[in-house]
Amino acid sequence: MTDQGIKSRPRYQPLEIDPAGRHHLLVVPSEDVPSDAVAEGFAPSAFEVWTVVRKSALPPSAITEEAAGTVRAFRSPAHLFSALEERLARETMGLRLYAVGPEDFLWDVYGVGEKAGLSPQEMRFTHSGTKARRIFCVHCRAVTEKVTTSIVTCSGCGASLFVRDHFSRRLSAFMGVQVDAEAPGDVPAAEELYA
Amino acid sequence: MTLQFKPDETFRKDFTYRNSDAGILRFPFPFPEDEYMYSVNIEPHVRGGPTAAFQAAFDVDEHYVAECRERALVLAEDPKRCQVLPHMELAQWDTLELIMESLAADYPDLFSLSKDGDLWTWVNKPLSIQQTFTFGKADTLPCPPFEYITRQAQGDFTLQDQREDNLYVDGGMVTTQADWSLEFDIGMSFHEWHGPVPLAHEKGVFDRALKYLLRLQYGQPVRRLNWTMTINPRLDTSPENYPVWGPDRTTITPENVAEKVHLRVELQTLFRLPRSNAILFGIRCYLASVAELSRVPKWRKRLHRVLRDLHPAIQEYKGLPRYRQMVIDTLAPFDDGAPLSKGIQSDLTAL
User: Is B246 at the interface with chain A, CB within 8 A?
Assistant: First the structure.
């Protein structure tokens, strides 16, 4: 039951460059651009690429130069997002923002872009890597990360949450609804679905 | 016609909400035919109609005062049931103007609006409110304009922004909802926020409805009915509080089914707003117990037929499986199978 027939779940295409763009910024939450996410004929050298190495000792680098083919590394996704906010605040028309990675990363990027005034047409996303989900508990609003099972214990209120396919781009998360709300204690076994 | 409000009614704990005889007869019964399937079923929202619930732009009935108090209780517990995204400021004022002007025109004994340029005075007699404010200046009201006026109206409201040939639910006052979350859905496009509804996407219902609504004209509002069922006359059946109201569904017995199971009808209205070009979506909730509806012979027979033949995916989505059969069993002895008139009117003038 990985597809519950709910239409809010985003669909993705392999990454292709938008020829209408003047400058192309690609962000990925890993060190390399995943090869399975890109369309045929895709040339990473056409993009300015921001990556995440997950290492605190990484020396900082200036975010102001922008040239196709530049690759810049950040210590964590959060580090990358704060730089992205700064960068987008100074941007002019014609930038296209691309992201490749797990779903929660993609829609976190979307949130940063939207806040900076980018329209959906100026952003392109491709899903790659883990299918683990970020779950927003509709009862307590806590977020539970890296969920791979059909039912998960809420990190906030402790409820057994059914992982519903309903997806919020704004929250960058799927909805979790208490599975035994009607008959407390009646919790089905969790299935591994989103590895 | 003078309205007798029932200010002490409750929608929680002891659930003292009841419909008067007149209240039953004005119920917007949602089934024009013996079978139910999702459809667009949008019609012009013109005054008059099959019951008295259709006689005003925004219907006010005997439950008005109690419903406004219930809304205030929900907001005190969870202020985020009212949210409007920042770019919808103009739509907030459009809403305030539309509701104030409509209520004052439809119910001059209860509400009045006087204007001296931008200096407006609003009087709401049932809630004992008199407010002078400057139209367009939010700091002259005790709370933001959308919240201010929707605290004084029955039913939920959402604000849809129109852009990119789509509608986005970018604001709302949602305290009496049938199990959907504004906090989760705010900002979603039309197909996204209807995502969980089964069957209707495949039937093209939402594609057609969206096309229709994108062309909605100012001054030509439209309406449709939707329905589900709720245990007890509870207005707040939010997903947020599902663990609070969900257990009610396991309490139904053949003895209490007629009193406890309520048909929950949404009279949905859509208004194009003049300055913002946004759409105000009113979702007015009516509750009547199976026992109350059973006093109208046509309605009890039709409700029986609709529930008996309901598509399994729809009964699942509406949360009916635990008690639907008990409702059918309690109604079946009163259904002789005779043909019923088309349409939703009660075919009665008095109970």
Answer: yes
